[in-house]
Amino acid sequence: MLKYGVAGIGGVLVLAAGAFAVNLAVSKPTLEGALALKGLMAPVAITRDAGGVPTLEGASRADLARALGFLHAQERYFQMDLIRRSASGELSGLLGPIGPVLEIDKARRIHRLRHRAGQVVTNLPADQKAIIVAYTDGVNQGLASLTGRPFEYSLLFASPLPWAAEDTILAAYAMYLDLQDEDALTDRIRAQNLQRLGPDMMDFLYPRGTALDAAIDGSVTPEPALPSAVPMQGRKAALVDPDPGPTIGSNAWGVGGALTENGAALVADDMHLGIAIPGTWYRARLRIASGPEAMDATGVTLPGTPALVAGSNGKVAWGYTNSYIDTADAVILEPVSGAPGQYQTPDGPKDLIRTTEKICPAWGDCQDLVVEDSIWGPVVDTLSDGTKIAVRWTAHEADAINLTGLLGLERADSVDAAIAIAHAARQPQQNLVVGDTAGNIAWTIIGSVPARFGTDGSLPSSWADGTRGWNGMLPPDQVPVIRNPDHHRIWTANARIVGGDAYAKLGDGGYDMGGRQGQIRDGLFARDRFTPADMLSIQLDDRALVLSFWQEQMLGALNARQGDTRLAALTGPVRDWGARAAVDSVGYRLVRAFRLAFSQKLYSAYLGLEGTPPRNRSAAQQEGPLRRLLTEKPEALVPPGYKDWEALIDAALIDVADQVDKAGGAAAFTWGARNVAEVRHPLTRILPPIGWLTDPPEQGLPGDSMMPRVQGPGFGASQRFAVSPGREGEGYFHMPGSQSGHPLSPYYLTGHQDWAEGKPTPFLPGSARWTLTLQPGA
């Protein structure tokens, strides 16, 4: 029985493997020939270059949307499915009752984004709705025309569900969730820290900015005073990680025509996101030769949506960075005495609206999740005393999504036109950097900006009496703009851009520390003429300017502790660290580890938390207070649990030495061993063996979070480009991962190594390698 049982299992495995291999072979996208596509008004010609980058040529924008949907489905449907499911809280319906997946679903269901997406589609202008409908139809025809289902579904024993119009809106909501603080966690943790630390210590440890700020308008923030004492001494400290983690953000900058040889503006952009296989973006060139919809735009599209996100259209080039303006506020709901389930509002008591969301994981039982909604937004937290916290978030607005920005920028003919489009757009709020053929450049916020009154939005507050809240969104003429500064340079890197009244209007949603932005600014002022190659040199800048302070401090501390043989062995690598986040640098990793250990122990001692809070943006500006404390060493502020400042430095150095020992010695403690690419297919997390089929070889990469070349495990520049509008043939482009999601595509992973090495490749698609014609079908 055992012999026949083993043989039977082996036979089943062989059959399963064979079925998977057959499905993999027949599910490849169609590259050549002619196909009928229902709904087309005229043929669409699709030529792909050797890297699989398509040029779509058609007669109308709706036809291009339909054809783009066809391509997205053929090459990226599983990615699209994950995007919509992530936003709607339906991941477990595909991946099963995995603990972390269920938690994501529960957190996302609070926002009821599938319901909101349906409302958005209903309320869209007719022309925009028509584009989404055409795209949706193209997606479903592209999926249906595959001979086999995308290979990931065969591994999951699942079948892909059709695409719906609201799924395209969910893809946009997914970017809101990826880029913003959807539950006002930063505000809520800020309030907890204020309670523990008091106002003086809170202002000092969590400042609004530092001396490293590099705002375009030159504004600076006042430096907080040193507190006179550490509050709440004697508490038991648990280990706290104050590091906010990698900044979901980007770099984008531009120079005006006065600084280029051809007189046109030059725009550079690299958006920093999680990096996986196949990759966030899908490259494309969209062309309509003539007529009222004539266009020729090249850049990146987001699978699941029908338009270019960033790129150049021959007249205007544009790119984004995450703005970190304040788009979500925590609202304290005041209870109504004797009426559970009610809360106070300016119009009197109201009932919380309770909705049951049903979460049904694959291979598991359905679960009910009760969501409570207020007039300001859903309840996201209930405190120990029963107080409920709701969130007011711009993504909950009835018009949170439209295609005005994406479709408008495809045809914008000037910087002024692009700014007007940005202020009418509804999408995740971003820094927009734009330049045109006349040499103009500008920065503004694309998307809506809350019009607050009575609050700056930085802490949870009650809005019950009507003295605090939002008066809708700022009108376009009040959204800050910087246009053609005298120095002809615009730069953004997720840090504060403006000060004064403009800063007050935008709020602070967790701006990044200004060191990276300042390094870009200084790179732009280091020359007075620019080419795309000059832009690439800034994007690949891995100099550790922010950490130079820490190298000096660590080296001084090591020199004073030569009696400790373990610490003495670190002196040479730290002294000769090379001042770059280089793959082979031991010294860089040592210095970085020392900074993190010092910061972690310092904030842990001050906060005295019983548990580790989730990462958030509240500690993004810690570089300022850390430097002051390490250099001034005020006796009154020695952290609880340490005899003096030298004891804290000892503890940080010992922590680093322990890390070195654990790694196998200093020679093995290179930055490349820590900063591995980890660019993987999402399914390798639950099915590791498929990595041999889907994932590129692992490698260490230069760069880090505090310099222009942002790079970390599974994180970094999701694309890089620099381009002058009208001179796209002179630009370059990089993208990690793969243009296609199918491992047997002839161009699978093409271009990935160029991205890893920083090797420039053309912005425009190359000569045609494959040609596919989509014909109008019945």
TrEMBL record:
One GO term of the biological process aspect: antibiotic biosynthetic process
Q: Which superkingdom?
A: Bacteria
Q: Name one GO molecular function term.
A: metal ion binding
- Residues annotated as binding Ca(2+): D326, D329
**Cofactor(s) it depends on:** Ca(2+)
- Enzyme active site: S250
User: In its keyword annotation, does this UniProt entry include Metal-binding?
Assistant: yes
**What are the protein's UniProt keywords?**
Calcium, Hydrolase, Metal-binding, Zymogen
Identify the Pfam families for this entry.
Penicil_amidase (PF01804)
Comment on bound cofactor: Binds 1 Ca(2+) ion per dimer.
Family to which this protein belongs: Belongs to the peptidase S45 family.
Q: What is this protein called?
A: Penicillin acylase family protein
Q: Which organism is it from?
A: Niveispirillum cyanobacteriorum
